[in-house]
Amino acid sequence: DAKPEKQKPNYAPTGLLAAASNRVANTNIVLKYNEPPNAMRPRPAQQHYLYVFKGDAMLAKHILNQKTCWLFGREPAVADVVTEHESCSAQHAVMQFRQVLKKDEDGGRKAQVGLYLLDLESGNGTILNGERIEGARYVRVLDKDVVKFGGSGREYVVLIVEKGDLNKEQK
């Protein structure tokens, strides 16, 4: 008569405990996004800038390398970059630095850190270079890419500068 195998305990948070771990202190706000295990800053020799434009006027400049993740949305309690337009969701989208493995020319694998955009299944979507991106899927963001959130007229332009090419950032 064999005894059934004991089930091992699962200590991962579930239900209300999981929701509480994503709750912003002293608010009822639950974060929609958690950073992935492959979150990583880019190498110091590569600077990532985000310029915010409304028409011809530059409203802000952010140095993206300062953090691995940037949350965009209308809710100032959680957003790193507040999108004030009424068509934007409270937690609209994320720009995330991630380390991914790419095949090199020798057939081996090489780790690279890149910038990715993720729409948090917002009501009015996220636009990358004029095309609406699919919700809940990472999309690679490259140098001079333009991002728009919802129906906002603001444009968020990414500029990637190698340390040896600082003249590019000044143009």
The tally of beta strands, per DSSP, is 11
Please summarize the sheet with the most strands.
Answer: 6 strands, antiparallel
Label the structural class.
mainly beta
Total of DSSP H or I helical runs spanning 4+ residues: 2
Q: Strand arrangement, largest sheet?
A: 2-1-11-10-7-8
Helix content: under 10%
Element layout with pairings:
Layout: H1 15-21, E1 46-54, E2 57-63, E3 69-73, E4 81-82, E5 93-103, E6 109-119, E7 126-128, E8 131-132, E9 139-141, E10 146-149, E11 154-162, H2 166-170
Parallel strand pairs: 3-4
Antiparallel strand pairs: 1-2, 1-11, 3-5, 5-6, 6-9, 7-8, 7-10, 10-11
How would you describe this structure to a colleague?
With 171 residues, this protein is mainly beta. It has helices at residues 15-21, 166-170, and strands at residues 46-54, 57-63, 69-73, 81-82, 93-103, 109-119, 126-128, 131-132, 139-141, 146-149, 154-162. The termini are far apart.
Q: Which terms summarize this structure?
A:
11 strands; 2 helices; 6-stranded antiparallel beta sheet; 171 residues; 5-stranded mixed beta sheet; mainly beta
